[in-house]
Amino acid sequence: MILLTLLSIDSILKFLGTLPIWAKISMGFLIIICFIFKDAISTLIKKIPIEKLNIFKKKEPIYKPRVEDYNELIVHDFFLTLDSTLGKVKQIDFGDIKPVNHIKRQMMLKLMNLKMISMEKHFKELILDENIKNLTAQEFKFKMMSTISELVKEYNELCVVEFIKMGIDNEDSWYFVDSYEGYRSTIVDSFIERLESICISKQYETNYGRLLAILEILTVAVDVIPRDVRSLYVLINGKYDKYINK
Known about the structure:
By secondary structure, the protein is mainly α. The chain folds into two domains: 52 residues; 172 residues, no CATH class. Helices cover 71% and strands 0% of the residues. Helix 5 packs parallel to helix 10 and helix 9 packs antiparallel against helix 10. The longest helix is centred in the middle third of the chain and has 29 residues. It is elongated, with a radius of gyration of 37 Å. The N and C termini lie far apart (114 Å). The N terminus is likely disordered.
């Protein structure tokens, strides 16, 4: 042990011997100061928490909870899908379905255009509603169902008005929109089931999470509309041929 200490002192002296004169003088002053104030320095060191002295301890990552900014949902893919889906519907010419009824095609385009406008309007109003974050899960469910009901009623009624302006009688106008809603009823029923599941699930603790999940589901539902448009066109084929030459 003594031999190791002597070797350590010898190594230190050799190191000091390599230093320039100004460094030796500075080192000497530092040692003298530390010796004079050794008690005060020792007291200060003891006051430092042990956690502060352990500089090699692995730091735990700081968890920052996500800020739920409802306004961010205004730029959700759902709204982009509304625009892109309408564009896809407009590109359908039904040329492979003979004969092509241009009146029926115009009715379909008007229905889809008004549907997309109503969906964008009502869901943006829902997102920007300051009270949405304070609703209970049951109240959120009721609010969502009311929004869906209102927007469907809105675009259906507006659509019938537009159809009548085209010369379609009231009964045939309502038959067209009712046929569309009837064809999409299975998707609506699935949406209601998912809404119920989302509202009772503990996975979604806030209405922000619930609303985000709803928008994801609606995005998929909107994305398949072009397929449904073609199917409905075939389903009601021939009924509106009488309006072609009017």
